[in-house]
Amino acid sequence: MRILLINKFLYPKGGDAISTLTTGKILSANGHEVVFWGMDHPDNPPYPFQEYFVSNVDYDSANGLGSRAREAMNILYSFEAKKKMAILLEKIKPDLVHLNNFAHQIGPSILDEFKKRCIPTAMTMHDYKLVCPAYRMLCKGEVCERCKDDRFYHCAINRCTRGSFFKSMVNMAEMYLHHKVLNIYDKIDLYISPSRFLKNKVEDMGLKAEVVYLPNCVDVEGFEPSFEWQERSIVYVGRLSHEKGVETLINAVREISDVELKIIGDGPLKGYLEEKVKNKNIANVAFLGYRTGKDLHDEIRKSMFLVIPSEWYENNPLTVIEAFALGKPVIGARIGGITELVRDWETGLTHTSGDVNDLREKIGLMLDSSNKIAEIGKKARSYVECELNAEVHYQRLMKIYQRAVQKNSQRQDYV
Fold first, then answer.
1. Cα-atom radius of gyration of the chain, to the nearest Å?
2. Which of 29, 312, 331, 385 is the most exposed place for a label (fewest CB within 10 A)?
3. How far apart are alpha carbons 138 and 146 in whole angstroms?
4. Distance between CA 139 and CA 145 in Å, rounded?
C-alpha cells in the first residue's frame, strides 16, 4: 500500500509525533510506501514532497489584530492546506490516509480533498480535541467535562484556551463550524484510540463515529533494558506544565531525602519550578532539561524507576511504555489510560492523582521494596515484548486499515 501519514509536527516533538514516525518506520519495514505530510518546521529532517507542507505556524508569537485574525481563519478553514493537499494527492495517489494530530496548524479542510477522491481515511486520536475545544478536558487546572454533547460554549465562558477569551472564542467557533455546520469530521472513515479510556470517554462525550482500540508501541530492539540501577534516583520525563503533576511530585519527594528526583523535560512551568526548588532549598531535585535518544535512555536506565504523576486524562503515554522497554517499573497516577499500563506490583504502582501524601507513600513503598524492582522491571519489559511490540502493532494496524477501506467502499456504494 501507499500510505499518506499526516501529523502537524514531523520531528520528535511529543508523543503524537513520535507515534507517527514510529508508525511510518513499521510500515516501511513491512514493504509499504510511506509519504509523510505536515507542517514545515526548521527541526524537520528532509522529506520528499516537503515543498507541499503547510507553512510553519507559531500561535504563541502572533502579534497584532491582523495576524491573529489570519490565524483564526486558518484554524477554522485553511485554504492553503487544502490547496497543497490537492496537489500532493494528484502526485502520489495514496491508497489510504492515516491522520494523527492536525488541528489548528493544518485543520480539517484537507478532509474534503480525501473524500472528493474517495480515499479511505483513518485517524489516531492522541488527545480529546474531537470533543473538547481546548483538547485536554481541563478547566482552570481541573478535569472538566462541561462540553459534553456539543456544549462547546463552555470553552469561551471559562476561557479554557490559555486563559484567553479571544483564543477560546476561536476554538468554540471552530468546534461548532466543524461538527455542527460542516460535519467535516464525518468524512473520516475510522478512528483509532490508543487507550480504552480515551475511546470510552470520547464516546461518552458525544462522538458518534466508530472508534477502534490500538495501543502505542515501541521497537524493543532500540531499547536496551537495565533491570538494576546505578544510582539511587527516580526520574520524571515529560512536559513541565500544571496538568502533568510535576509540582505534586516535587512536594512528594522533598521529604524523602535519600533519593534524588531527576526532572527531564521542558515547558511553561520550568522557571517557576526551578525557582521553587531553589527558594525552598529542596536539595534532592535536579532539572536536566530536554533529553532525547541515547541521553534520555541512559538517564532512565541509571534510575530505579520512573514516575508519571499526571492530573489530567492521560491517553496511552509513550513515556511509560518506553520506561517498561528499558526495564524500569513506573509509579503512575490512577487517571486516564495510565492504569491500563501500570498495574500494582506487576509493572509498577499506582497512586491517587493529585494526592501528595499518597504519591509520597507509594514512592517510599517502592524504595523500601528495592529487592522487587528488578523483578517488576522484567515483567514490564516482558509486557512490552509480548503485547506492545512492532510486529503485533503492525498486524493490528493492517486489520484497522482493512476496516477503513471496507467502510469507505460501503460509503461509496451507499452514495
1. 22
2. 29
3. 10
4. 9
Using CA atoms of 333, 339, 345, 348 in order, give the dihedral in degrees to the nearest 10. -50
| pLDDT category of residue 414 using cuts at 50, 70 and 90 | low
CB count, 10 Å around CB of 118? 11
CB atoms within 10 A of CB 96: 21
Round to whole Å and give the CA distance between 15 and 221. 19
Grid look-up 511510518 returns 24
- Which one-letter amino acid corresponds to residue 123? M
Q: Which of 399, 196, 190 is nearest to 316 (CA)?
A: 196
| pLDDT the model gives residue 72 | 79
Q: Do 181 and 167 meet the contact criterion of CB atoms below 8 Å apart? A: no
pLDDT digits 0-9 by tens, 73-105: 778 899 999 999 999 999 999 999 999 999 989
Secondary-structure percent of the chain, ordered helix, strand, coil, rounded to 5: 45, 15, 40
Which carries the bigger pLDDT value, residue 61 or residue 337?
337
pLDDT at residue number 316: 97
Tracing cell 505536515 back to the chain, one arrives at 38
Contact (Cβ atoms closer than 8 angstroms) between residue 350 and residue 333 = yes
Q: Are 259 and 285 in contact (CB under 8 A)?
A: no
CA atoms within 13 A on the CB side of 329: 28
Alpha helical stretches, state H, 46-94: 65-76, 79-92
